Amino acid sequence: MLNNIGLPGILLIAVIVLVLFGRGKVSSLMGEVGKGITSFKKGIKEGDNEIETQRATDARDVTPEERERSKNL
């Protein structure tokens, strides 16, 4: 269904949305979407940093004897 929209259909939908909600509402909505995307990216980056920190901590907690045993497996 959505594969057949094309550029003219998207432009028509954009014009209808602009007429219905007005430029101010659409502008503020896009600002909120941008803030949400920025917040999402920040959360992903913090999650990756937390995982790397946990891996580094786990690697330091292993004793040399345990490292040697895991190499032999």
Describe it:
- The chain has a domain at 23-73.
- It has 73 residues and is mostly helical.
- Helices cover 89% and strands 0% of the residues.
- It is elongated, with a radius of gyration of 25 Å.
| Percentage of residues assigned to helices | over 70%
Order of helices and strands: HH
Low-confidence stretches: none
Strand content: under 5%
Average predicted local confidence, pLDDT: 84
User: What is the overall shape?
Assistant: elongated
Structure classification: mainly alpha
Number of helices: 2
Oligomer designation: single chain
Q: Measure the end-to-end span.
A: 54 Å
Q: Radius of gyration from the CA trace?
A: 25 Å
* Number of DSSP E strands: 0
The main β sheet shows up as: none
How are the elements arranged and paired?
Elements: H1 6-61, H2 64-72
Highlighted features:
73 residues; mainly alpha; elongated
Quick overview of this protein structure:
The protein contains two helices and no strands. With 73 residues, it is mainly alpha-helical. The protein has a domain at 23-73.
